[in-house]
Amino acid sequence: MKRIAKTKRKLLIFGAVTGLVIVGVVVTIFALSRIGTDNNAANDPYIQREENDATESLPQDDGLGELSDAGTEPASPAENLDPESVSSVVIEPLGIVVSYVKGIAGFEYAIYRTNDGTQYVEFMSAELAGTKCTDDAGVFATILKNPPAETDAATAELEKQLDGDTYALSLPDDTCTSDEALFAQYQAAFRDAFGLLALIESDEAQ
Question: pTM for the complete prediction?
Answer without folding.
Answer: 0.65
